[in-house]
Amino acid sequence: MNISPIKSGTLMPDFSQNSPLVRYALRGLERCWLPEHGCWSHIYHLDGRASPNESLRRSDVFYTLNVLLGMSRIKEVPGSISLSEIFYRNAIQLTVLPVPKYALGMALWVSAELGFEVPEQVRREVKVLFSDQAGWKVLRAQDLGMLLTGVVAQAKRGDKEWAHFAAPLYRFLEERFRTGSGIFFDVPSGFRRRFASFATQIYLSIACYHYGEFAGESSALAMADACVRKLITLQGPNGEWPWFFDAVSGRVLDFYEVYSVHQYGMAPALLEWAERYRVPGARNALIKGFNWVFGENQLRRSMLVPDLGLTIRSQIRKQELTTRVPRMLRSVKNAYVGREAGLIESSRVGLRLECRSYELGWILWSFGQRGDLLELTHNSAFGKVAVPA
User: What is the CA radius of gyration of the chain?
Assistant: First the structure.
């Protein structure tokens, strides 16, 4: 498979079925394509280096599956992209590379959404994982969330052999990750448990919505709703979605990094479910969060890179661009002294100058089917976008 560079001056015609936002993300994905590996890259660096694409094979493969998930919801897939070829080539790599367990869940989810068979090697590995319930104690929130979502997606597609795994996975989630605060735990047990990321909330809430709707399980829907309601109360003044929480108290431990993908991709994916179940404020929270990307943020600058069709990854404390240690120590201290974190002075906030392909994949997933948010999907910031070849 080959994705050719966009020809200069070729513009997407007005009658295209894809929105300007989706076309923008597709153009960015052109930049991230690695033809030698048949996948999208781990990182596209935005610091001006001569070779901006950086490959990390285990990450490339997972990010590529995430992009394919997004492709499953867009109205027009560029003719140069062979979804089946990319899927099978990368899904098989999950059994030979040291990928996290959540990558297997993503493979189940993507294959169901695209209508592809799960490769036999992947099927065997997932079934071994599911049969060893004692081993579930090492699963983190993202692992469990994606595995449950993938199983439900397969079952909804009609693959009944997966359906009987759904209830045990959900019960494990309910017993080991649920809290009284509405914020989910990050792991089933141990010291690390209470320190939960925004991603933790997204993956487990989406899984609960999927399972609750599929199984008619009201407790799952209630857990997801409770998490969304809590997150909305914790959203920052500019629409920022905080990065780190104390799951026990439901407090924000650290806002930073504030990731663009949370603002335009992952939060909208969850809030689409919340809108469907009429969670108050869900739509407004989605719009406010997305407007952060357009420049309604601390730095008063757009997080878009229009010339490339890419986005800037995050806003971060300047001194923490190369280390997470201060963030971890600060979060532990805030948790145990009962302090809730807020935003810091803008002069101390910088940018992480990179874009990751999965981030663009979340745009495709969250907005590929939406025609009701024209202020976002057809925003003038996306302008006239070149046609992906």
Answer: 20
Token digits for 113? Answer: 């959404």
Structure tokens that stand for 370 in this block: 């939406």
Which residue, among 127, 87, 93, 128, has the nearest Cα to 110 in the 3D structure?
87
**Dihedrals phi, psi of 223, to nearest 5 degrees:** -65, -45
Torsion angles phi and psi, residue 253, rounded to 5 = -95, -30
Of the candidates 114, 101, 211, which has an alpha carbon nearest to the alpha carbon of residue 155?
211
Q: Which of 81, 145, 76, 66 is nearest to 113 (CA)?
A: 66
State the DSSP string of 215-264. Answer: HT-HHHHHHHHHHHHHHHHH--TTSPPPSEEETTTTEEEE--SEEHHIII
DSSP calls for 39-72: EE-SEEE-S--SS-EE--HHHHHHHHHHHHHHHT
- pTM of the predicted model as reported, rounded to 2 decimal places: 0.93
The one-digit pLDDT tens for each residue of the chain (389 residues) are 444 433 333 334 344 899 999 999 999 999 999 999 999 999 999 999 999 999 999 999 999 999 999 999 999 999 999 999 999 999 999 999 999 999 999 999 999 999 999 999 999 999 999 999 999 999 999 999 999 999 999 999 988 889 999 999 999 999 999 999 999 999 999 988 999 999 999 999 999 999 999 999 999 999 999 999 999 999 999 999 999 999 999 999 999 999 999 999 999 999 999 999 999 999 999 999 999 999 999 999 999 999 999 999 999 999 999 998 988 888 888 888 888 899 999 999 999 999 999 999 999 999 999 999 999 999 999 986 544 44
The sign of the CA dihedral 240, 241, 245, 250 is: positive
387/308 Cα distance (integer angstroms):
13
The secondary element (H helix, E strand) that includes residue 196 is: strand 195-197
Give the integer Cα–Cα distance in Å for 365 and 359. 10
229 contact partners, CB below 8 Å, separation of at least 6: 182, 279, 280
Helix (H, G, I), strand (E, B), or coil: what is residue 161? helix
Helix or strand run (H / E) with residue 34:
strand 33-34
